[in-house]
TrEMBL record:
Alphabetized Pfam families for the sequence: LplA-B_cat
Protein name from the UniProt record: Octanoyltransferase LipM
SUPFAM superfamilies, per database record: Class II aaRS and biotin synthetases
The keyword Cytoplasm is annotated on this UniProt entry: no
Reaction(s) this enzyme catalyzes, per UniProt: octanoyl-[ACP] + L-lysyl-[protein] = N(6)-octanoyl-L-lysyl-[protein] + holo-[ACP] + H(+)
Biological pathway: Protein modification; protein lipoylation via endogenous pathway; protein N(6)-(lipoyl)lysine from octanoyl-[acyl-carrier-protein]
Domain BPL/LPL catalytic: 33-248
Active-site residue numbers: C150 (acyl-thioester intermediate)
Superkingdom of source: Bacteria
Cited InterPro entries: aa-tRNA-synth_II/BPL/LPL, BPL_LPL_catalytic, LipM, Octanoyltrans_LipM/LipL
GO BP terms in the entry: lipoate biosynthetic process; protein lipoylation
Residue intervals passing through the bilayer: none
Annotated family: Belongs to the octanoyltransferase LipM family.
Length: 278
């Protein structure tokens, strides 16, 4: 039997507003039956801090530091915490909730989609596995995250290597469609990352930064050789095809589709009302 064919789009480095607008547009088009399921790879120009849909920017983010580092800033349509998108491969997966291979439970659907990421790490020679919080304390910690930093702790079925988180993902479900997107870290500037958030005092900041080193790690900090972005793309392209048992068919957006995305980007993801009013 032939594998199902999904579309594959690599948009390279784009603005923060374009990146989020295209993920939303793909969700819309899939819900309207105009687009099959799709996997997308992308990067960020400039490097960007994205915050989760429910985060309070005034309380949690140091916008002066964001500006001082010359970073972009955008609110995601998905939940989760703050992510510095710099030295990474970003992916998104758009597929119907009604797809026969998608479990109804959010957690289990997350595991199925993340099989593609797991296989990608294996292609890079890294022994990644799924984090499964086992104790009541670990499960409670997921409900009450103390940090505004996304990579501070693995959630259900997050990808870890040697006990440390190597990929962070978030999911939303709208119009009968699942959108899951996330970051696969190649390198990480921890000083820059921790400068972007507000803390009650420097002692708390240093304690969290120290703890972070035991919880999160980038591919090139643990790989026996340096992994380039192109190698990572190749590994995760194969990983998604194997993990989801699909074939990927490259696709270029039409002029009309690009115009729709750019309109959505300027109207929503570049507006202060969307990015700051939560």
């Amino acid at each position: 039997m032939n594998n199902e064919v999904w579309r594959f789009i690599d948009t390279g480095n784009s603005s923060p507003s374009f990146n989020m607008a295209l993920d939303e547009a793909l969700l819309d088009w899939h819900s309207e039956g105009k687009f099959p399921p799709v996997i997308r790879f992308y990067g960020w120009n400039p490097p960007t801090l994205s915050v989760g849909y429910f985060q309070n920017v005034d309380k949690e983010i140091d916008m002066e530091a964001v500006k001082a580092h010359g970073l972009g800033f955008v609110r995601r349509p998905t939940g989760g915490r703050g992510v510095l998108h710099e030295h990474e491969l970003t992916y998104s997966v758009i597929v119907s909730e009604a797809h026969p291979e998608m479990p109804k439970s959010v957690t289990e659907a997350y595991r199925v989609i993340s099989e593609g990421i797991l296989k990608g790490f294996h292609h890079l020679g890294l022994e990644a596995y799924f984090a499964v919080p086992r104790t009541p304390e670990e499960r409670d910690a997921l409900k009450n995250p103390r940090s505004a930093v996304c990579f501070d702790a693995p959630s259900w079925y997050e990808l870890v290597v040697e006990g440390r988180k190597v990929a962070g993902s978030a999911q939303t479900r709208q119009k009968g469609v699942i959108l899951q997107h996330g970051s696969i870290l190649l390198d990480l500037d921890e000083d820059k990352l921790f400068s972007l958030f507000k803390y009650s005092n420097d002692r708390v900041k240093e304690r969290m930064k120290k703890a972070f080193k035991d919880k999160a790690v980038a591919i090139n900090a643990i790989s026996s050789r340096r992994v380039s972005l192109e190698e990572a793309k190749d590994a995760f392209y194969k990983g998604f095809a194997e993990g989801l048992n699909i074939e990927l068919e490259s696709y270029q957006l039409t002029e009309e589709e690009l115009a729709y995305v750019q309109k959505l980007a300027s109207e929503r993801y570049e507006s202060d009302e969307w990015n700051f009013k939560r």
